[in-house]
Design brief:
Elements: E1 5-8, E2 11-14, H1 28-40, H2 42-51, H3 54-79, H4 84-89, H5 91-114
Antiparallel strand pairs: 1-2
Helix pairs in contact: 1-2, 1-3, 3-5
Length: 116
């Protein structure tokens, strides 16, 4: 027989190994995208996994989503006049506006990057 096999009981099974992949940090956005791929795009997920590029791909999606999230949050807060001055004058209004901004930005990032 060609290749490497391991005997398990009465059977010889091929000794398969996935290609080595450099571990990178995957944040919440990358984890959400991985879950989405597992549920909705199984072939793409398995192709990335078996080729050893899944971790790198998810890390790049995470970095892109984090960058977009902070960029949009800053942009939206500037547009709506949410400043440090507002925070010191009226904390409850500042919290209300920031929660609204963050919810909107989260939805945009999820629709544009995570679930597409």
């Amino acid at each position: 027989m060609g290749g490497t096999y391991t005997r398990v009981g009465d059977y010889y099974l091929p000794a398969l190994a996935l290609p080595a992949e450099k571990e990178k940090h995957i944040g919440i956005w990358g984890q959400r995208h991985a879950k989405y791929l597992k549920q909705n795009h199984k072939v793409l997920y398995m192709n990335l996994f078996t080729s050893g590029r899944l971790n790198e791909y998810l890390a790049s999606v995470d970095a892109l989503a984090v960058d977009m999230f902070f960029r949009l949050a800053t942009k939206y807060s500037d547009r709506q006049g949410v400043t440090e001055q507002l925070k010191s004058e009226n904390q409850f209004l500042w919290i209300q506006k920031m929660n609204n901004i963050l919810a909107c930005v989260r939805e945009v990032v999820e629709n544009d990057i995570i679930y597409s």
